[in-house]
TrEMBL record:
Protein name, per record: DUF3800 domain-containing protein
InterPro entries documented for this protein: DUF3800 (IPR024524)
């Protein structure tokens, strides 16, 4: 099982910080369909001057292309899980501990996926190396620990958990996770579901911290 993770929003608490922080995970059964999807959109839908852009980003993509990317993701053989943090509910003592909050959210989401899917064999988790990576070793250890959380032992031994931190620009599957996270974030941030509804049929897990129904 391969899981690709990316986020939308930030974990700051200043006047310009986002109200929500979203993590999205793509549970992918055939990553080549996603890579072909992005390649096809780049070659057929973008103007020649934009075809060599190193990456797609949700926040920098215009509506029509954004719609096509999300529809293409929805047509791929994958599921989507996400966690959303309502930042105004975070304890004041944790507001300057971004790494701890990030580790907790990611660990909660990945362990929920592992338990709900009763995954056997190797679990491959791929993340963007540029975000919250100063304590990467601690993150990897914490994620392994959380695989046995929620009271249901994961079928996969810890030595079969593979965590990789890669450059976002080189991995279309992480870019796809960014689009999923962006659509979810826009739903919460603006109460706008125009893009969320495209991928909603693929949603299997939704964790809302600390309010709302847990799917």
């Amino acid at each position: 099982m391969k899981i690709y993770v990316d986020e939308s929003g930030d974990l700051g608490f200043g006047p310009r910080a986002s109200r929500y922080f979203v993590l999205a995970a793509l549970i992918v059964r055939d990553e080549q369909t996603i890579r072909r999807c992005f390649k096809r959109i780049r070659q057929r839908k973008l103007k020649k001057s934009f075809r060599d852009l190193p990456e797609f980003k949700y926040n920098n993509t215009k509506g029509l292309i954004k719609n096509r990317i999300l529809q293409c993701i929805a047509d791929c053989d994958l599921d989507i899980a996400y966690a959303v943090l309502r930042k105004d509910q975070v304890y004041s003592r944790l507001r300057d501990k971004q790494q701890i909050v990030y580790n907790y959210l990611t660990g909660s989401l990945i362990s929920r996926i592992a338990n709900q899917y009763a995954i056997e064999g190797c679990i491959y988790v791929c993340m963007d190396k540029s975000m919250y990576s100063l304590q990467r070793d601690h993150f990897d250890d914490y994620l392994a620990y959380r695989m046995f959380d929620n009271g249901v032992p994961c079928a996969t031994p810890l030595d079969q958990l593979v965590i990789e931190h890669v450059d976002y620009r080189t991995e279309p599957c992480i870019q796809a996770a960014d689009f999923a996270a962006g659509a979810v974030h826009q739903r919460y941030r603006e109460n706008n579901e125009i893009y969320y509804t495209i991928i909603e049929p693929k949603m299997t897990i939704a964790l809302d911290f600390f309010k709302g129904r847990q799917k």
